[in-house]
Amino acid sequence: MADVLDDKFERDFFRKIFDSLYEGVYICDHARKITYRNKAAEKITGYSAQEVVGSHCRKNILNHTEANGNPLCPSEACPAVRQ
Q1: In terms of residue numbers, what domain contains 53?
Q2: pTM above 0.90, yes or no
Q3: Ramachandran quadrant class, 46 (left: phi over 0; alpha: psi -120 to 50; beta: rest)
Q4: Could you report the per-residue pLDDT of 65-78, keeping only the tens digit for each?
Protein backbone atom coordinates (compact mmCIF):
# COMPACT_ATOMS: atom_id res chain seq x y z
CA MET A 1 0.00 0.00 0.00
CA ALA A 2 2.87 2.40 0.75
CA ASP A 3 4.15 2.01 -2.83
CA VAL A 4 0.76 3.04 -4.21
CA LEU A 5 0.69 6.12 -1.98
CA ASP A 6 4.28 6.97 -2.93
CA ASP A 7 3.44 6.65 -6.63
CA LYS A 8 0.38 8.88 -6.24
CA PHE A 9 2.41 11.42 -4.25
CA GLU A 10 5.11 11.46 -6.94
CA ARG A 11 2.58 11.81 -9.77
CA ASP A 12 0.81 14.67 -7.98
CA PHE A 13 4.13 16.32 -7.14
CA PHE A 14 5.41 16.28 -10.72
CA ARG A 15 2.02 17.23 -12.15
CA LYS A 16 2.02 20.39 -10.00
CA ILE A 17 5.51 21.27 -11.18
CA PHE A 18 4.73 20.63 -14.86
CA ASP A 19 1.45 22.54 -14.67
CA SER A 20 3.27 25.59 -13.29
CA LEU A 21 5.58 25.82 -16.32
CA TYR A 22 5.03 28.16 -19.26
CA GLU A 23 6.62 25.63 -21.63
CA GLY A 24 4.50 22.87 -23.10
CA VAL A 25 5.24 19.44 -21.62
CA TYR A 26 3.91 16.10 -22.72
CA ILE A 27 4.80 12.57 -21.65
CA CYS A 28 4.52 9.51 -23.86
CA ASP A 29 4.79 5.85 -22.95
CA HIS A 30 6.97 3.38 -24.85
CA ALA A 31 4.29 2.97 -27.51
CA ARG A 32 4.27 6.77 -28.11
CA LYS A 33 0.85 7.09 -26.50
CA ILE A 34 0.44 10.43 -24.75
CA THR A 35 -0.10 9.86 -21.05
CA TYR A 36 0.15 13.46 -19.81
CA ARG A 37 0.21 17.02 -21.13
CA ASN A 38 0.41 20.18 -19.11
CA LYS A 39 -1.75 23.29 -19.25
CA ALA A 40 0.83 25.24 -21.28
CA ALA A 41 0.77 22.53 -23.97
CA GLU A 42 -3.00 22.91 -24.08
CA LYS A 43 -2.68 26.67 -24.53
CA ILE A 44 0.07 26.39 -27.18
CA THR A 45 -1.66 23.77 -29.32
CA GLY A 46 -5.34 24.43 -28.64
CA TYR A 47 -5.91 20.75 -27.81
CA SER A 48 -7.13 19.95 -24.31
CA ALA A 49 -5.57 17.12 -22.30
CA GLN A 50 -8.90 15.27 -22.56
CA GLU A 51 -8.68 15.38 -26.36
CA VAL A 52 -5.08 14.20 -26.48
CA VAL A 53 -4.27 11.87 -23.58
CA GLY A 54 -4.56 8.30 -24.77
CA SER A 55 -3.79 9.22 -28.39
CA HIS A 56 -0.60 8.34 -30.18
CA CYS A 57 1.58 11.35 -30.88
CA ARG A 58 1.89 10.36 -34.54
CA LYS A 59 -1.87 10.86 -35.09
CA ASN A 60 -1.36 14.53 -36.05
CA ILE A 61 -1.35 15.58 -32.42
CA LEU A 62 2.39 16.27 -32.40
CA ASN A 63 4.20 16.81 -35.64
CA HIS A 64 7.90 16.60 -34.93
CA THR A 65 9.90 18.01 -37.82
CA GLU A 66 13.50 18.87 -38.57
CA ALA A 67 14.49 22.52 -38.98
CA ASN A 68 14.20 22.09 -42.76
CA GLY A 69 10.61 20.83 -42.44
CA ASN A 70 11.27 17.13 -43.01
CA PRO A 71 8.93 15.03 -40.83
CA LEU A 72 10.46 12.94 -38.04
CA CYS A 73 7.29 11.04 -37.19
CA PRO A 74 6.35 8.29 -37.25
CA SER A 75 9.90 7.07 -37.98
CA GLU A 76 12.47 5.99 -35.44
CA ALA A 77 13.89 9.52 -35.67
CA CYS A 78 10.88 10.76 -33.69
CA PRO A 79 12.07 12.45 -30.47
CA ALA A 80 9.46 10.45 -28.54
CA VAL A 81 11.33 7.28 -29.47
CA ARG A 82 14.94 8.39 -28.97
CA GLN A 83 16.49 7.65 -25.61
Answers
A1: 1-83
A2: no
A3: left
A4: 888 988 877 677 77
